[in-house]
Amino acid sequence: MSSFFSRILPFAVFLAGVTFSCSAPEKKDTSGEEWFSLENRYAEGFRIDTAEGLWRTTVLHPWQGKDQKVFSYFLAKGRERAAADAPLLRIPVQRVIVTSTTHVAFLKVLGKSNTIAGISGTDFVYDPEVRARIAAGKIKEIGHDESMDYELILHLQPDVIFLYGIGPSTLEQVTRLTRLGIPAVVVGDYLEHTPLGRAEWLRFFGAFFDEEPSARHYLDSLAERYEGHCLPDTLSSRPLILTGLPWNETWYVPGGRSLTATLIHDAGGRYVWEDLPTADAYPMDIEKVFHRGGHADIWINCGSATSLRGILRVDDRLALFRPFREKRIYNNDRRMSPGGGNDYWEGGVVHPDMLLDDLRQIFHPVTMPAGRSLVYYRQIE
After folding, report:
1. Which top CATH class is 2-225?
2. Beta strand residue intervals within the chain, DSSP E
3. How far is 267 from 232, CA to CA, in rounded Å?
4. Distance, CA of 36 to CA of 15 (rounded, Å)
5. Maximum Cα–Cα distance across the chain
6. What's 232-379's CATH class?
7. Based on CB atoms within 10 Å of each CB, which residue in 35, 137, 198, 368 is the most buried?
């Protein structure tokens, strides 16, 4: 294992609460460095700062809930150490493990899929090239949560493992991996409220590969396309949009500040629950959803249901909903892997412009080119 530990400098996770400036260098912190902030355009959950030969990436919101931590990671290129001997991770990283298919999508855009040595949930990967590497044994399944295979992770010798932050329990994984000498980076992209905010986490990943400038260039191009395709707030006619599907007689609906609500609005729809004040999922009973959304014009994102019959198997009362009667139901499951992975939650994260165009085509077909096929959505029959 000596070759593994010689590739990376001592590394640790820093917990910090720091106020940053976007227009001027900060005062020197405890590391003795003078930091310059690289301003985010959309994302709220991370920040990136630079100093001479150094990067500092900070995750401000790693998971849901009130019990939050702030994680900072110090990255170095061409320097042996930071002032005050702050632990560093040498970049660009060459070998990584990821724990979410969204991480796969970010690395795909960066052209770094070939650095993936392990994945949590290989069956759910959609990307054909990555699936081919999994089939060839070049990418290993590392397990998840309590079943995570730490022995295998150590054997794979990653430069870094990107963790999906699900809650304070993630700290246990961070602690155990750090004790094994494996840098563990918590990622909270899924908490962003806007499609472009989530896509901007590409810059966060890019910093670890010394590709932040190219990630920023991709984001700028993506934002131009996305914002250019948004329908105006002054749109006079907006169809009423229902989302989701009940589970065990409870219907969890995304809040009015959720990413789903943002996409619906930008595509010219009016979300049934647009008045709910947060991005959280709210539990509702079917009667309440019917009272508010039974007369909706269109129903989207209906979970695991692949047909109208499948919807009725969940609850036969769903036949009373107007979109069911009029067969105006569209699910976001057009691109599925053999193992059940959905590219909407993988490639769609870095291609929100395509998600937007699909919804525009569903809500306002006359605004889209004739003959265009849906990419991520399909009509339920």
Report:
1. alpha beta
2. 14-15, 36-38, 46-51, 54-59, 71-76, 89-90, 96-98, 116-119, 140-141, 160-164, 184-187, 240-243, 250-254, 270-271, 281-285, 298-300, 329-331, 378-379
3. 9
4. 19
5. 68
6. alpha beta
7. 198
